[in-house]
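Protocol step 4 of 6: structure prediction from sequence.
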Amino acid sequence: MIDISQAIKALDSSAEFVINGTPTNEAEYQKQVKYVSGADKNGTAIFKDTQDFTWEQVSAKQTELQADYDAKQY
């Protein structure tokens, strides 16, 4: 099964983010996925106030990657 983190990395391989749970809809995505903008002097992550990608973009990429995986019949 292709997960959200694989979809985000496929959209931007350099994306830094934290996922807390397994979002299955836009509301969960907004609450559970935080993108990193940098770090403070102690090395603690600083999170963005906005998402780098919309739920539609991430879920569409996840569906695309899953279809490709399924087609290859591993």
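Step 5 (inspection) to follow. Strands lie at 17-19, 33-39, 45-47.
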